[in-house]
TrEMBL record:
Compartments (UniProt record): Mitochondrion inner membrane
InterPro entries reported in the protein's UniProt record: MCP (IPR002067), MCP_dom_sf (IPR023395), MCP_transmembrane (IPR018108), Mtm1-like (IPR045315)
Reactions catalysed: glutathione(in) = glutathione(out)
Name of the protein in its database record: Mitochondrial glutathione transporter SLC25A39
PROSITE patterns linked: SOLCAR
Organism: Geospiza parvula (Small tree-finch)
PANTHER family per the UniProt record, alphabetical: FI19922P1-RELATED, MITOCHONDRIAL GLUTATHIONE TRANSPORTER SLC25A39-RELATED
Membrane protein topology class: Multi-pass membrane protein
Length: 355
């Protein structure tokens, strides 16, 4: 049965169709996860006084008081987005009066009742700007690499998802990193495109082209292992579920369940890298607002977290990460596989008509 099951229903479709399928998945995932982040940020906002007491609590809450001219980290389960606020400007849609919430459900009800249901998606535009192109690059690259490696590796085909997932994420992170840095700079300094071009030229002249990839290292440390583990487990779980259900190919629900399970496993195993990555991104954003502050190295951040909270500190935020990543992965991969199946059937029908 395992030999008959294809790696994915991606065969017989074009890269453009893969891009359309992954882009649709990214949009649907963002639509689902954005309200969770809006509620999370509002809950964090009412705990400002507590967050100011310890560095690690700020790392876990990933909120650095936009009203004071700093930044917060916005995560949608697919990608992380650093949002910088200069003296509170530009944050009115995301950062409002904290309110008096007793919990997540209470926050959902009160935000919807007092501000309207649209406010739950107030952070959607900047999410889509980064998440859609990043996800399109990532998923399309993975499929292309996996298919290529299947023709080259022979008996090593069980490890193809591991390798293809790692390489695809590495490529996506490398392409997106300069865009993320440029967007952060525009937010923090309110630059026009002409001023931004001059700023980038000055930075490149001073520090070289590699200055556009600041923060690339810690991003890779978290995202590449996550991607490798995710795709490896996804292919295993999908094959196993199809075998148990006597299916020749994965259904929407099989892909959904496989995505949720594999996303949860990968999220747990890479949680220490996520903690360090969060602190690193916050320090990078803080340095954009206050250039005198110099970001710490990844290794120093790990040592600092361990010194302040022990090894458990590197695994903080377990439940929020799993709650977000599991459904995001499930929605993304099931939508993507459904889209590929749709285009595959469409192409087959067109071929039959042409005969």
């Amino acid at each position: 049965m395992a030999e008959k099951l294809p790696p994915s229903p991606g065969g017989g479709i074009t890269p453009l169709q893969q891009m359309l399928a992954s882009g649709t998945g990214a949009i649907l995932t963002s639509l689902f996860v954005t309200p969770l982040d809006v509620v999370k940020i509002r809950l964090q906002a009412q705990r400002n006084s507590l967050l100011q007491r310890g560095r690690l609590s700020r790392v876990m809450a990933v909120l650095l008081f936009p009203a004071s001219g700093k930044c917060f980290l916005y995560c949608n389960g697919l990608m992380d987005h650093l949002y910088v606020c200069q003296n509170g400007n530009g944050c009115t849609a995301w950062y409002k009066a904290p309110g008096r919430f007793t919990g997540t459900l209470d926050a959902f009800v009160k935000i919807t009742r007092n501000e309207g249901i649209r406010s739950l998606w107030s952070g959607l535009p900047p999410t889509l700007v980064m998440a859609v192109p990043a996800t399109v690059i990532y998923f399309t690259t993975y499929d292309q690499l996996r298919d290529y490696l299947h023709t080259r590796m022979g008996s090593w085909n069980h490890y193809i998802p591991l390798l293809a997932g790692a390489l695809a994420r590495l490529g996506a992170v490398t392409v997106i990193s300069p865009l993320e840095l440029i967007r952060t700079k525009m937010q923090s300094q309110q630059l026009s495109y002409r001023e931004l071009r001059v700023c980038i030229q000055s930075a490149v002249a001073q520090d070289g082209w590699l200055s556009l990839w600041r923060g690339w290292g810690p991003t890779v440390l978290r995202d590449v292992p996550f991607s490798a583990l995710y795709w490896f487990n996804y292919e295993l779980v999908r094959t196993w579920l199809c075998r148990q259900a006597w299916l020749d190919g994965a259904t929407f629900m099989v892909s959904f369940a496989s995505g949720a399970i594999s996303g949860t496993v990968a999220a747990v195993l890479t949680l220490p890298f996520d903690v360090v990555k969060t602190q690193r991104q916050i320090e990078l954003g803080d340095s954009e607002v206050h250039p005198a502050s110099k970001p710490s190295s990844t290794w120093l951040l790990m040592q600092r977290i361990r010194a302040e909270s022990g090894t458990r500190g590197l695994f903080a935020g377990f439940l929020p990460r799993v709650i977000k990543v599991a459904p995001a992965c499930a929605i993304m991969i099931s939508t993507y596989e459904f889209g590929k199946s749709f285009f595959q059937k469409l192409n087959q029908e067109q071929q039959l008509r042409g005969l």
